[in-house]
Specification:
Elements: H1 3-13, H2 17-28, H3 33-39, H4 41-44, H5 49-78, H6 84-92, H7 96-103, H8 113-119, H9 123-130, H10 137-142, H11 154-170, H12 173-186, E1 188-193, E2 209-213, H13 219-230, E3 234-239, H14 242-253, H15 260-309, E4 319-323, E5 330-335, E6 341-347, H16 356-369, E7 374-378, H17 383-391, E8 400-404, H18 409-413, H19 416-421, H20 427-440, H21 442-446, H22 465-483, E9 485-486, H23 492-496, H24 503-516, H25 533-539, E10 543-544, H26 562-572, H27 576-581, H28 583-587, H29 601-612, E11 642-651, E12 654-658, E13 665-668, E14 689-698, E15 703-707, H30 736-745
Parallel strand pairs: 4-7, 7-8, 9-10, 13-15
Antiparallel strand pairs: 1-2, 1-3, 4-5, 5-6, 11-12, 11-14, 12-13, 14-15
Helix pairs in contact: 1-2, 1-5, 2-5, 5-30, 8-11, 9-11, 11-15, 12-14, 12-15, 13-15, 14-15, 15-22, 15-30
Coiled coil: 158-185
Domain S1 motif: 640-709
Pfam family, one: Tex_YqgF
Length: 748
Amino acid sequence: MNTNHFLIVAQELGIKVKQVTDTVELLDEGATVPFISRYRKEVTGSLDEVQVATIRDRVQQLRDLDKRREAILKSIQEQGKLTPELEKQILAAETMAVLEDLYLPYKPKRRTKATVAREKGLEPLAELVFRQDLRDVETEAAKYIDEAKEVNTVEEALQGARDIIAEWINENAELRKKMRDLFINEGVFVSKVIPGKEEEAIKYKDYFDWKEPIKTAPSHRVLAMRRGEKELFLMLDSCPEELSATLLMEKMVLTGAANSSVEQVRLAIKDCYKRLLKPSMETEVRLFTKKKADEEAIRVFAENLRQLLLAAPLGEKSVLAIDPGFRTGCKTVCLGPQGQLLSYDTIFPNEPQKRTAEAGATIRHLVETHKVEAIAIGNGTASRETEAFVKSLGLPKNIIVTMVNESGASIYSASEVAREEFPDYDLTVRGAVSIGRRLMDPLAELVKIDPKSIGVGQYQHDVDQSALKNSLDDTVMSCVNGVGVEVNTASKQLLTYVSGLGPVLAQNIVQYRTENGPFKSRAEIRKVPRLGDKAFEQAAGFLRIRNAKHPLDASAVHPERYDLVEKMAKDLGVKVADLMTSEELREKIVLKNYVSETVGLPTLQDIMSELSKPGRDPREVFEVFQFQDGVNEMSDLKVGMKLPGIITNITKFGAFVDIGVHQDGLVHLSHLSDRYVSDPAAVVSVNQKVQVTVMEVDIPRKRIGLSMKSDPFGERGKQKPVEKKSKETPESQGDFAAKLAALKGKFR
């Protein structure tokens, strides 16, 4: 264990070395981020999820660096070329780029021009020329003419020497560092359309002749240009001015003397830049900017996903769900309060059949038979027509009728998960079930779908898939554990994300539940096959059991602290259940009396908070949303209309809003507020209900421009910065993804 890592991370994050050391020890023992941040606050000094995850990722990065360092030292040692000075430089390297620069001269190479020149015996000539004090290089080069070695002329000898010098220059670690900085700080992205593809590449029209500094290019444009290049529509260059680069190299390499050997070195510099250094630096800069763009896109995706997963649930209600359609009809299912499928049918209230009387009778019968409390209608094809039909039936006013975003429902319906849940039903029934369950509990249903299919990402197929998966897994795990999971009703997929479980133990819990009936206590969870003490420790606090014998089993209080709470109750002469129902009793508890070596005030305060609201869902309360009546298609839109909408996706350039016309409109960041906005996530969130004004309707291109300004057509006026609003999410302080990106930025 390299203790220097802990010092580095502590300095980068502005925390104590002991906090890093103790956190890494917990992580190495198999503890999860949610568990550490929630139940080990005394050990970590109350680090939150973001800080714990950052420590985990940064320490792993440093460990990977050490592994590469060891491999490089071993390789150079085996070559017999490891000097004390070189070893010192390698041991001091703080980034992979610096490490690879130092290794470059010793790295096994394929056959190069310099290799060929050395085989011809031209390295001594290269050394003489590189000293830059020869006044007559041609006379010296003539000594190396050797037909047997295929060196037939003075120019061939000098060319070979220049090839060797070019390689030396390219392998200079200090020069590469400065050149890398030049490319990043002064480089420019230049994008041009490939001649003859203007019509085919119309969606990349903005980049047909585009220039932008590399260091300020936003992630969405970097990814867009790269995608256009990948699809063979654009040509993309990413370099500084050639003159700036060669002047930098000449300043570092040339001695300043004026003689023929200096001119040979100058020629070698130009060759080195064009043939070796420029392609190498461009590749590095592309990787750097891609990584940076990926991180930003993944951050936006993760935050959007978090907001979507934590959308307000309707709760345990009897729901009638409709997957609307025209020709094939509307698939209709009834779900019980726990999401169980009770019945299914197909109705045809829309064109072309338009059997409205029959469909109306079916809906009324289902509502009455199953005591339906809410009707969920998917927002796809025929959604507005179906909504209007349902609302025309004169159903009791206490029945909620609402639209549900069905993005990804078709992915779920064809998945192995859906086939396992409903082996005897077809895709359409499964899709309708998913729509209904999304209304009841978005988190529980959406964890069954690949996050990339939910529709809240940007360029998700272009970014690093491994990094994306890790970030989204972190986000889902954070949300699931923040909300808590009812162990007796949770699906295998939901249980998989509980701290300490995973797919195998999740399946075992479901299997045990099926064979033995509902769990009666948290202690009974220990009986699940292969669920040992460590897994129980990690998972127990996040699993809930309602109506259990022990009242704390329904709360987020960890079983390891039950004795402590029972002592609090005993000291007051009451029962634990009394503490959970009486604020007056809780106020009598003097927390400092219960501080010990393992339990401090942070944990005690968490316990008191949980006793006041045991097991309460931290998500917002569900509110019914309704689109504007009579506005069902893009053709119904008129510039200037003011409409209700719901935000479906947030990007760096604005937010997409569903206004009920089957095509989301875009509120550009310049129209998100009356004041200046630099980050859309600062002022809006996914699933937020908003009022928008229609600014533009382009039916052929299926584009809708919207505004959230109070006077979008008036004068813009003086804009003031918008401060980022504070958002609390379960078991985290603030915006998990944004804070994580900011912390990582310190050591990029």
